[in-house]
Design brief:
By secondary structure, this protein is mainly alpha-helical. It has one domain. It is built from nine helices and three strands; from the N terminus they run H-H-E-E-E-H-H-H-H-H-H-H. Strand 2 and strand 3 form a beta hairpin. Helix 5 packs parallel to helix 7 and helix 7 packs antiparallel against helix 8.
Length: 237
């Protein structure tokens, strides 16, 4: 029970840049995720970077919004076999949350690699933003048709190991703390998606008031195109 807004899609597609043949799949996943957020703002340009040892995945707000993704991260996702696309969607969706929720000083996936990225921030605030990006990112990945649950904490662990990052990085949560946060965010997203499924069932059964209550509950934590649209349909009916 969803609806596509053509004007929004047109604006979003303008911000999705042509992929190389090798990584066309990555850009296809990115475009699908961006459309699910359903905002009129043009999404950041996605740039795949080769051989940058200090980069994993990062949302850069200026001078022009950009999401940079290391080729090695794509290779890591490929090691998850049948879940490789779900792992990729989790990372890309995480970075898109940083953009759409305006976490302009908190754009790096999982790691603080540059001291200036932590300027005027605190450990607790950064963790809160990372947890929000985890939870909303996983929820929106599900709405896009991916299945990141059960994959994400394993992916986070593998990223730490592959990039040989220390368990503790100055001014950033420790590795285990970050992984536990990811697990908590996964639980939140799993619960939110379950509520979305139940709300859709109420809507299909003609129980519009019950459906509307469930969608309103979701909108407080997981605002997205699909939830807004279905909430509007329930209220109208």
């Amino acid at each position: 029970m969803t609806k596509t807004f053509c004007f929004v899609e047109l604006l979003l597609c303008l911000g999705i840049y042509q992929a190389s043949a090798q990584n066309k799949h990555v850009f296809d996943v990115y475009q699908k995720l961006a459309l699910t957020f359903g905002e009129a703002r043009i999404p950041p340009e996605l740039v795949i970077v080769q051989g940058k040892s200090d980069l994993i995945a990062q949302y850069v707000p200026s001078p022009a919004p950009t999401i940079r993704l290391d080729q090695k991260v794509i290779d890591i996702c490929q090691t998850f076999g049948k879940d490789s696309t779900h792992a990729l969607a989790a990372i890309l969706s995480h970075e898109l949350v940083h953009f759409y929720r305006r976490h302009d000083w908190c754009g790096e996936f999982a790691f603080a690699l540059r001291s200036q990225s932590l300027k005027n921030s605190t450990n607790n605030t950064r963790m809160a933003y990372e947890t929000q990006a985890d939870a909303e990112g996983l929820f929106n990945a599900c709405l896009s048709g991916y299945k990141p649950f059960g994959v994400y904490p394993k992916l986070l662990t593998k990223v730490y190991e592959t990039y040989k990052r220390p368990n503790k990085i100055p001014n950033y949560p420790a590795k285990q703390e970050r992984i536990e946060s990811a697990k908590m965010a996964e639980q939140q997203a799993t619960g939110g998606y379950a509520v979305f499924v139940v709300a859709n069932s109420w809507l299909q059964l003609g129980e519009y008031e019950m459906a509307a209550q469930h969608y309103d509950f979701l909108l407080k934590k997981f605002p997205s195109r699909e939830v807004f649209n279905n909430a509007g349909v329930a209220q109208l009916l």
